[in-house]
Amino acid sequence: MLYSKYSDNNILIQTGKWTPEGDWHITESFSVLTLTDVMLPFERQLDLLLAQTAQVVQSQGTPVLMRFFLSDPANQTALLRERLVFDCPVSVIGQTPLNGTKISAMIWCRQSAAICRISDRMHKVTERGIDEYWFTGGVSDADGSYNQTVALLDELSGELESQGLSLENDCMRTWLFVQNIDVNYKGVVEGRNTVFDRHGLTPDTHFIASTGIEGRTAEYNNKVMLDAVAVSGPGIQVKYLNGESHLNRTSQYGVRFERGTQVEYPDRRHVYISGTASIDNKGKILYERDIVSQTDRMIENVQVLLNEAGCGFPQVGAMIVYLRDSADYGVVKKIFDTRFPDCPRVIVQAPVCRPGWLVEMECIAVY
Fold first, then answer.
1. Same domain, 123 and 195
2. 120 and 108 in one domain?
3. Does 241 lie in the same domain as 360?
4. Which of 231, 261, 295 is the last residue of a domain?
């Protein structure tokens, strides 16, 4: 991964770019955009960020995913949606950027991809005979987090089936954003288990890589928001990552997701690392109340998963780091600045699914 970093008009742009030797036409890039002036009002921050987003797309290619992190989604989402001009998978989530600004973005682009809209929530991204189906911004009006999770996974399954795919065979990655996770996560877990039982996703088969994390939408009644990606095409091979020396199977403590998934294409590999925290191979939280030790162990766990996929941090295109306590931002930022000075990342406030976990991270690698 080739990294670059520069500032332009109050925006810091960090980019990780992967290009196979001798063929720039299939370049993939990950760009993280963050404001540098905390004093600007939201509307000005938004204008600057969207202008820079357009420049990134112009230079890097088709956007296959845009995720925007907002400090106050109830008051900011409508204006962001109004000013977005990109017909691509877009995820908008209330997770406050911890550098003191109101909005950040992560943009995943591919130089030679083509994109079309399938439905309100589904886009198809096609490149070199491979199709990706991105489901973004899924919300439900059902009562409670259990029913919303069931409804959203059923909707995702229906969308995939309409394209000749299935949840159990083709979905590679999900993100479940949960309002007030300390209260609502139990319903999410039970709802996912219910749907997975119906689809034969059990401890004896496999699950789906996932992040379950605090996140809010513009509407107070949305307890859960769902993003997901499925892959279809010739030559696709999938490997599920366990990290057994450092992590346990998630089903041992009642949840169902893979620690990571490697998707092998004819010409590259994508590695999706699920939300990963400071845990051991018995499922125990390590280093309670110690943010430094938890961060170190979290990074070690991710390293093990990446190594199992045949890569490492130099192949990571972007990281998202989630903190329960905003007061830990300075400590965690210093650790990441020291260990990964060039890798694009955003650090946001978003409590993890167990109160004892102070920090969690996810990442995507390409090689």
1. yes
2. no
3. yes
4. 231
Domain hosting 354: range is 235-367
The gap from C-alpha 260 to its chain's centroid, in whole angstroms, comes to 12
The sign of the CA dihedral 123, 213, 18, 83 is positive
Strands 130-138 and 171-178: unpaired
Residue finishing a domain among 68, 93, 112: 112
Structure tokens at 177: 């954003």
Both 51 and 131 in one domain: the answer is: no
Distance in Å from the first CA to the final CA of the chain: 8
Lowest mean pLDDT among 18-32, 56-70, 90-104: 18-32
Residue 245, classed as helix, strand or coil, is: coil
3-class secondary-structure state, position 232: strand
Query: Residue 23: is its pLDDT beyond 80?
Result: no
Residues 174 and 262 in one domain: no
Could you read off the pLDDT of 223-265 as tens digits, one per residue? 999 999 999 999 999 999 999 999 999 999 899 999 999 999 9
**Domain count for the chain:** 3
Q: Could you tell me if 352 and 322 are in contact, meaning their C-beta atoms sit under 8 angstroms apart? A: yes
> ∠ CA(4), CA(110), CA(171), 5° rounding?
115
Would you give the DSSP letter of residue 258? Answer: B
pLDDT in tens, 306-317: 999 999 999 999
Tens digits of residue pLDDT in 156-192 = 999 999 999 999 999 999 999 999 999 999 999 999 9
- The answer on pLDDT for 136 being more than 90 is yes
Q: At what angle do helices 73-83 and 42-60 cross, to 10 degrees?
A: 40
- Which residues neighbour 131 within 8 Å (Cβ) at sequence distance 6 or greater? 124, 125, 231, 232, 233
Separation of alpha carbons 18 and 183, rounded Å? 40
Helix ranges restricted to H, 144-290:
144-162, 167-170, 181-198
CATH number at residue 290: 3.30.1330.40
